[in-house]
Amino acid sequence: MALSSARKAAMAAVAVAALGGVSFFGASASEAAPGPAGHASSTAAPAPASAVAERSVPAHRQAPQVVTRVIGKGRVDGHRWSVALEFHRTLPKGYALPTLPDGASAPGTSLLCQRMYIGGVRIDHQGGPWSDCQPVTGTNDPAPAGEMGLWGLHDKGLDGTRLMVANPEPDVAYGLITLTNGHQIKATTVTVPGTTYRAWAAPIPDGQTIAAVDQYDDHHHRLTHDTNWH
To answer: How far apart are CA 65 and CA 195, in angstroms?
Structure first.
């Protein structure tokens, strides 16, 4: 459950129509193997130059089909928490693109999932394995940038232990959450390797209220200031 920006809520509403399953934290890579080595006696003809050249070419590593990057993890209120971004280079088998209000399928050739756990329970697991996933186009789709949400296991993230997760613009280096009791929580932006998809995540303890959320660049210049979170 989550209390998020209007853009995030709109995307989640569309994603409800999607059904299917996905493996968690999967990753795969294949490597081209050279052909079997032949056996030759001292009287055998030498191998053709083309065959020798083929065997000398180094194996090529293919890009992983699923790339996962942990954005943040730790303990809060006695529970372990973690947030990870999971990028599927191609739409996973069994996944269907959501249907837009006009009946057309949402655009996308890849899938970006935000996996959030508190105390071993995945947030929004009630929505199925595709919850908190959104279709994107390739590795550089700008659509997710600028989104921010407050997520929890109870009451749409309004109370209990919660997680603040932001998918910031490229120039955001970190986020700084200031609670009403004066305590500040800093979270560094982390990028999924080989993509432009990035996020920062921080835990909000039970009973605490957010006074402000600020985002900064590498030179510690404040880029955004938001006081609409509670």
So the answer is: 12
